[in-house]
Amino acid sequence: MQTTVFLIIAVWIQPIVCTSSTSSFAIFNSYIHGHLDGRVENTNNLLPEYDFIVVGGGSAGAVLASRLSEIAGWTTLLLEAGGLETIVSDIPGLAKFLQLTDIDWQYQTEPQPGQCLALKDERCNWPRGKVLGGSSVLNYMLYVRGNERDYDGWAKAGNYGWSFKEVLPYFIKSEDQRNPYLAKNKKYHGTGGYLTVQEAPFKTPLATAFVQAGVELGYENRDCNGERQTGFMIPQGTIRDGSRCSTAKAFLRPARNRKNLHVALRAHAHRVLIDDQKRAYGVVFERDGKIQRIRVRKEVILSAGAIGSPQLMLLSGVGDPTHLQQVGIPVKHSLPGVGQNLQDHVSGRGMVYLINETVSYVEVRFLNFPSVLNYVRQSGPLTALSGTEGLAWVKTKYADPNDDYPDMQLQFIGGSPISDGGVSLKNNDNVKDSVWKEYYEPIAYRDSWQPIPIVLRPRSKGYLLLRSSDPYDKPLIYANYFKDQHDMKVMIEGMKIGLALSKTEAFQRFGSRLYDKPFPGCETLPLWTDEYFECFLRHYSTTLYHQAGTCKMGNSSDPTAVVDPELRVYGMQGLRVVDASIMPDVVSGNTNAPVIMIAEKAADLIKESWLKRSDLPKDV
Ligand SMILES: Cc1cc2nc3c(=O)[nH]c(=O)nc-3n(C[C@H](O)[C@H](O)[C@H](O)COP(=O)(O)OP(=O)(O)OC[C@H]3O[C@@H](n4cnc5c(N)ncnc54)[C@H](O)[C@@H]3O)c2cc1C
Ligand SMILES: *[C@@H]1O[C@H](CO)[C@@H](O)[C@H](O)[C@H]1NC(C)=O
Ligand SMILES: *[C@@H]1O[C@H](CO)[C@@H](O)[C@H](O)[C@H]1NC(C)=O
After folding, report:
1. Of 580, 449, 451, 439, which Cα lies nearest the Cα of 517?
2. Where are the domains of the chain?
C-alpha cells in the first residue's frame, strides 16, 4: 500500500515540482483528465421500479447493463457493492497492489487437508473485485478465449446455443483488436467492439526467450486465440493505450449518458424478493446505511460472480433446503445445485527460476519516477500485464496427443514471488512468515522467472455454503484442490515441462536454474522427483482466480443444474444468472473474455425473449 500511495503522490506532485518540464506537466494533465473524463455517474435518485435490475457490475454485469440499455424503452438499474475504479487500478503494472484493499472482497478458503499448507491458517486467498468493473479491475488483463472443445462440450450436454460456432460471434462482437497482424485474421478477431485488446507495449527479453524455448521443445509460436490452441504466444491483454481496459471502462462509459440506465454504487444487495408463484419481483439492498427495496417489471439478473451469485441465491431462499434450514433462511425454492460444482484453476506460483542477468521485473528497478513518466506516455514496464509475458498451452502425457485439446497451461512470469522482496506478492498469496523467511528471503530481489502450471480441466470440484443468514458474512468456501489425484498428476507433469523449459538454449543464455533449496515441509524428499513436486504444490497452492460453475447451466434432466441454456433459473420466473457461475465446466483458459462473451450472448437471449412480446412500448 505504501508504494501505491507513493505512486499517487508521484503522479500528482512531480510535474508541479519539476517546473522545468512543462511538456511532462501537459502529459500528466491530459493523462489524469483522460482517466477522469467519461467516468460513470453514481445515480442518486432511483426509481421505485425498473424493467431490469442487474446485481453486480463486474465483467458480466457491466456488459449486460450496457447492452440492455441499448433498448430505449427499457429501464435498467445496475447495483454494485463497490465504487469506481481509481488511477492506480488503471495502471497495468500495479495490479498486484489492488488485492487486500477495499476494492477486493478478500475471500479465503476453509482449511482442508493436502492444500494451501504453506499459507497462513492453511487458507488460500481468493481475491474478487468489489468495484464497478468487478474482477476485470483486479485481474491481470490476459485476454484468452479457451478451447473450442470447451463450448462444444457444453452444447453436447444439452446446452443448446453454446457450441463454439455459436459463441465465437459474441467474442468477436466485443473485441477491438489493435494489433494489425492479429486483426487481419477476421475469422477469429474483431475490430470496432467496445473491448480493446492488444499486446502490452513493453516486454523483457525473457518474453522472447519463453516463446523460443517453446519452439525448441517442438511447440509452435501461434495466436492461441485463433484456429488452434496448442502452442506458445505473447499474451494479448484487455488494455487500451497502455492502461487497463476494464468492462466498466469498455462497456459502461459509452452508455453513461443514457437516461434509461441507472447505476447505484456502494449498493450491497441482500436478497432477491420472490413471491408465492416463485417470481422474482425485486431486490433488497443497502446503500448509504439505508435498506431499500426496488421492484422489477421484467427480470432480476444476478451477475455477482461465482461467489456472489450463489450466495445471493441462498440468501434469497433458493438452494438446498437442508442447508437453508441450518442457517435459518425460509426456503422459497429447492435447488440443490446452488453453490455446488465450484471449479477453479489451481496453480503453482511458488517456484523460482534464478537467472544471472538483470532483465526481470525486480520491483526496485521499475517502481520509480521515470517509469511513471514513461507510463503516461504509454510505454515502459508499468504498461506491462503485471509481469505475465508469455502463455502456453501444452499437452502432458495424460492428454490426447492427436487432439488440439491441451490439459496444461503455463503462464510465464518475468519474475517470481521474490521480485518484490515480500512487499505484496507474499501477502497476496497468504504465505506464512516462517516459510517466507526460510525459503524466499535469502534470494529476495534476485532476478528470476517462473512458468506457472495450471490444470486446465480440474476433476476436483468444491462447493460453498452460507456461514449464516447475514448478507455481510463471507461464505464458507471449500476448494477441494487436488481432491482428485488426477489433477495432481497433471500438475506434476506441468512442473517438469517448466524444468525442461529452463534447460533450453533460450533460457540457458540467462543462466536459468531452478532454485534448489528444499521447500519447508518437503526437506526429506529428493529434489525434482514427483513426490517433491507434489509436496511443493500441496504447500504452495494458489488460485489462478478462475472460480466458476456454482450456478451451473444444464439441461432439464440434470438435477445439479441451476439455470437452463437461456440462463433462466429452473423452476422460477423473472430470474437469470449471468456470470462465471453458469459455466458447466470451467473453460481451458483464463475466464474474463469467456464471461464477457456469456454476457453478450445473454443480452441477446433477453432481448429475444422480451422483444417478441406485443405488450412492449412502441419505440422498441
Ligand atoms: C486477481 C485476479 C486476476 C485475474 N486475472 C485474470 C486474467 O489475467 N485474465 C482473465 O481472463 N481472467 C482473470 N481473472 C478472472 C476474471 O477476471 C474473472 O473470471 C471475471 O472477472 C469474473 O467475472 P464475473 O462477472 O463472473 O464476476 P466479477 O467480475 O467478480 O463481478 C461480480 C460483481 O458483483 C459485485 N457483487 C457481488 N456481490 C454483490 C452484492 N451482494 N451486491 C452488489 N454487488 C455485488 C462485485 O462487487 C463485482 O463487481 C482474474 C481475477 C482476479 C481476481
Ligand atoms: C443432460 O445433462 C447431463 C449432465 O451433463 C448429461 O449427462 C445428459 O446426457 C444430458 N442429457 C441430454 C439429453 O443432453
Ligand atoms: C550464473 O551464476 C552462477 C552462480 O554465480 C554460476 O555458477 C553460473 O556459471 C552462471 N551462469 C552463467 C550462464 O553465467
Report:
1. 439
2. 2-34, 38-111+130-193+268-337+463-478+548-613, 201-234+346-455+482-540
* Alpha carbon of 562 to ligand 2 centroid (Å): 14
- For ligand 1, whether the C-beta of 546 sits within 6 Å is yes
Q: How many CA atoms lie within 13 A of 183 on its CB side?
A: 15
Atom of ligand 2 nearest to the CA of 584: 5
Q: Which fold has domain 201-234+346-455+482-540?
A: Cholesterol Oxidase; domain 2 (3.30.410)
Going by alpha carbons, the residue nearest to atom 47 of ligand 1 is: 130
- The structural architecture, per CATH, of the domain 38-111+130-193+268-337+463-478+548-613 is 3-Layer(bba) Sandwich (3.50)
CA–CA dist 77, 81 (Å, integer): 13
Ligand 1 centre and the CA of 248: distance in Å? 12
Q: What is the pLDDT of residue 21?
A: 52
Please give the biggest Cα pair distance in the chain. 75
Q: Is the pLDDT of residue 29 over 80?
A: no
Q: What is the mean pLDDT of residues 114-140?
A: 98
Angle at 160 between CA 157 and CA 166, to 5 degrees: 115
- Mean pLDDT of the 32-59 span: 91
Give 283-294 pLDDT, tens digit per residue: 999 999 999 999
| 131 annotated as a binding-site residue | yes
pLDDT, mean over the chain: 94
356 CA from centroid of ligand 3 (Å) = 6
Quick one: which ligand is closest to 159's CA? 2
Q: What confidence score (pLDDT) does residue 2 get?
A: 47
Average pLDDT over residues 329-353: 98
262 is catalytic: no
Is residue 436 classed as helix, strand or coil in its secondary structure?
A: helix
Q: How many CB atoms lie within 10 A of CB 326?
A: 13
Instruction: Say yes or no to pLDDT of 615 above 80.
Output: no
The percentage of residues in the chain with a pLDDT greater than 90, rounded to a whole number, is 91
Protein residues whose CB sits closer than 6 Å to any atom of ligand 2 = 157-158, 554-555, 557-558
Whether 424 lines ligand 1, by a CB cut-off of 6 Å, is no
Nearest ligand to residue 554 Cα: 2
* Amino acid code (one letter) for 153: G
